[in-house]
Write a structure and sequence with these properties.
Layout: E1 8-10, E2 17-19, H1 32-45, H2 50-66, H3 69-74, H4 89-98, E3 103-108, H5 115-126, E4 130-136, H6 138-145, H7 154-162, E5 169-173, H8 179-185, E6 189-193, H9 203-209, E7 213-217, H10 225-233
Parallel strand pairs: 3-4, 3-6, 4-5, 6-7
Antiparallel strand pairs: 1-2
Helix pairs in contact: 1-2
Length: about 240
């Protein structure tokens, strides 16, 4: 049983399972049920568990509504990659710019999300009208951090970031640094933690080339995904907090 913006309820004879929508989609809901049905049928045909099929179908319906519903399908003049999902950076940037808003972007690996990350992202979101988080892909993290990283794959890191109220969209990039993605998104503000200096950032000249601004934000010292991973692994000499 579909529950609109609340998701769906799955009953198999026992206590029902509530499958909540991953976000509250706003827009024309015409066609959302069809989107749900197609998605769940496809997943079941692929041999997925019913619970997983319903969860994926709920997400598909939410994406459909957020992308504009049936009206978006009729707008055939729009490029195909412009009909993205909530959390899709390109769609978000276009919409914010159309209404004269300020686009803020921040970047990093965000392998093990910690308080330092959250404070940075919250501060970045307050600087504008939307926040896009540029995230290193798994391959990019391995090149930067070593073979044991990332601890958390990009798909899960994206999902966790999107669960934060301060994050409006996530874009994953494969390069070691996000210049190509930044050049595509062209944010008005590129936010970095205060442990950097503007002269140390290769992105500074690029962002300023289109009139953007690089902003350093307060940084919580001592927070580190690498340190968290070392503590979790119980490596000798890794500091512990009493």
């Amino acid at each position: 049983m579909t529950l609109g913006e609340h998701g769906a309820l799955l009953s198999r004879g026992g206590p029902p399972l509530l499958v909540p929508a991953p976000w509250r989609a706003s827009g024309d809901c015409c066609g959302a049920g069809d989107s749900f049905a197609v998605a769940v049928a496809g997943r079941l045909a692929d041999g997925d568990l019913v619970e997983l099929a319903v969860r994926e179908a709920v997400e598909a319906a939410a994406r459909f509504v957020s992308a504009g519903g049936a009206h978006a399908v009729l707008r055939s003049a729009r490029p195909a990659d412009d009909r993205g999902t909530p959390g899709d950076a390109r769609v978000l940037v276009r919409r914010v710019r159309e209404r004269g808003g300020t686009v803020v972007a921040a970047g990093g690996c965000f392998d093990l999300l910690h308080a330092g990350h959250v404070e940075l992202l919250q501060a970045a979101r307050r600087a504008g009208d939307c926040l896009v988080v540029c995230v290193n892909s798994d391959a990019s993290v391995r090149r930067r951090k070593g073979g044991g990283r990332p601890v958390v794959p990009a798909e899960d890191r994206t999902r966790v970031l999107l669960a934060l109220d301060c994050v409006d969209a996530v874009a994953v990039f494969d390069e070691d640094t996000p210049e190509r993605l930044l050049d595509e998104l062209r944010p008005d503000i590129w936010a970095k933690g205060g442990d950097y200096a503007l002269t140390d950032l290769p992105e500074t000249a690029l962002v300023e080339s289109w009139g953007g601004q690089v902003v350093l934000l307060p940084y919580l010292d001592g927070r580190s995904s690498t340190r968290l991973a070392e503590r979790a692994a119980g490596r000798p000499g890794a500091p512990t907090r009493r």
